[in-house]
Amino acid sequence: MTTPTETDQRVSADPRISPTQILQDLEAKAPEERTRGRRVAAEGRRTNPVVVNALRIGLVAIVIGGWELGARFGYINPFFWSSPSRIWESLTQQVASGSFYMDILYTMSSAVTGFVLGTLIGTALGLSFWWSKTYAETVEPYVVMFEALPKIALAPLVVLVFGVGIESKIALATALVLAIQALNAAAGAKTVDKDIIRMMNSLGASRMKIFRSVVVPSTLPWIISGLRVTIGLALAGAIVGEFIGSNRGLGYRIVYAGSTYDIAMVWLGVFVLALLSIVLYVGVGALERRLGNQLTGGK
Questions:
Q1: Residues in contact with 23: Cβ distance below 8 Å, sequence separation at least 6, in sequence order
Q2: Which of 12, 121, 127, 226 falls 20 to 30 Å from 53 in CA-CA distance?
Q3: What are the transmembrane regions (predicted)?
Q4: Which CATH superfamily is domain 83-295 in?
């Protein structure tokens, strides 16, 4: 930005320059200066990925090291908190047995299947609200009520109805996903440009044609935006189902280990679940970005 000293020099060098002209020059340069200032500020806020990753690893190392030392020297009770060395020993035993992989696959299958079913059914339900305002105003409040209902309260009933097999876990995972996706799809359908619909009607397009060509594409960003949230809910639903009634899966292993006071196995199950949730979150995030790029033409 032009400084007062520079302004004085311009006035003294050329008396024909009026203060009004100088003010106009300053106002013209102001947006450019603000843009440059924001760019410099943004560059100053950028972080070094290497430093961030090193800090993350260091934080994990400090927690694990402090946990192990605390358990060894009696600062924490190893009976309740176990220790990283005991958890590692439990991991090697479970890997050697081979059945641990089957339990992981069982839980993942329940979660992913429930996620897919909940997404498809919820999306279809939400989009159906676009067809009739009366139908939407009648049904949507019940969907909102179901979404607000703690699904864990339904777990015992679901297990009684579907049994202790994988069906009950899929049903719970589906229930946790369905309502959220339905409300997302319904909200997206409400944002469709009414002018486009009127133009399509004036061109003689059928209601189904408008639905396929306008409503569904306009709603897709709303549907996609909720996927990373609902995949975690699907995993939670599968685990709750295994807690209530199952003879397989990570949830069953955690409950069984807790009943036999195998605290190391309990912690191992929790850590494996955390790792699985990260894998699912990253995978769905990649799918979300890919679908988003296709919708925007790769921009």
A1: none
A2: 226
A3: 54-75, 104-130, 142-164, 170-189, 210-243, 263-284
A4: MetI-like (1.10.3720.10)
